Amino acid sequence: MRRLRACLGAAAAVGLTAAGATALVAGNASGATTALSNRWYAAAPYLMPLDNDPPDPAAIMDATGLKAFQLAFVLAPNGGGCSPTWGGTAPVSSDTAVQSVIDNVRGKGGDVSISVGGYGGTKLGQTCADAAATAAAYQQVITKYGLHAIDFDLEEPEYENTAAIKNEIGAAKILQRNNPGLYVSVTTAGTADGTGWFGKQMLLEAKSQGFTPNNFSIMPFDGGFNGAASQTSALTNFNAILQSTFGWDQATAYAHEGFSGMNGRSDTGETFSQTDFRTVLDYATAHNMDRFTFWSLNRDRQCTPVDNGGRTSGTCSSVAQNSWDFAKYSVRFAGATPPSTTPTPTPTPTPTPTGCKTAWSPTAVYTAGDEASYNHHNWKAKWWTQNETPTATDWGPWQDEGAC
């Protein structure tokens, strides 16, 4: 789902270090402020400012020490065209709501990056005529908000479109050239071997265009991952892909590599705890990786009522936590120390199991209201379904009725 949207140096061609780069000033952007160090943009978690019950960034800053936010997502208009919008519906040109969020963050000494793309929706690389037109649309975003950082989130269905990816990578290269000091990250899907075929084709497109962003980040979730060990293994494998694609040595590849995780319960039912985040953070810092971020701050709070991990939400994590606990790992990656807190999370209650319904069968036909048991949970069909394994997703045919 990326994610219930529905899971990174001053010059990109120069090897980066874990300490981050010095602060830069974008001299050609309207309304620009003095930039933070690149390490803060590399640590900026995603936040949807207009959807999924947006939290108050100022409250997060006060509670955690976080200074940077990755605002998501800029898309093409739902009706088509080559002009930037928030979520396909709100034109950037007339926006005041996101501008207000940015002004509040900057008023407290912070800053934002903006992410373009994401999972689903229509991307500007798909609707604009070429790389130059795509870049011109994104330049409107950079100029309006005075940006020092931008993230290209290249996922389904766009990253399966060769022409669209050529436009996006070409646009990123143009923006990097025309906005000196602009921090550019490229985020794509993660798999156990690093990234899949489309991710590898995207890297080859970047190589063919001679484009090197500050980092290429993968999202090791929603793909059969199980905790931190599987994620760090994917990061190791992705490092090898970067080496072989660009001819980098291991250290240079890590200096251009990033991690984008998902806090709590993922779309496919994986669970990533704070312990997992700590492990991946230690891996990232030990290998001098350039980026550590996550989806999302809208989810960085405990569900109310307390959820036992049985559903994935866009507004809470489905794990026991204090609000903004996961954001503190981003603060640590940036090199800062979060304020100490004393509250303890509300414990997740152990549900009282009920009797199990007849076991789910892949050959049976189920209609709306039919019940079956699977994996020690009872499930109710939302509509007609056959051979669709019961899983707790908002868009799937099954509703989880709890443990049995």
Account of the protein in words:
- This protein has 404 residues and is of the alpha/beta class.
- The protein contains 11 helices and 17 strands.
- The strands form 4 sheets. Strands 1, 2, 3, 4, 5, 6, 7, 8, 9 and 12 form a 10-stranded mixed sheet that branches. A 3-stranded antiparallel sheet has the order 14-15-17, with no helix packed on it.
- The longest helix is centred in the middle third of the chain and has 19 residues, at 228-246.
- The protein is globular and about 65 Å long.
- The two termini are 28 Å apart.
- 49% of the residues are buried.
Keywords:
alpha/beta; single chain; 11 helices; 29% helix; 404 residues; 17 strands; globular; 10-stranded mixed beta sheet; 3-stranded antiparallel beta sheet
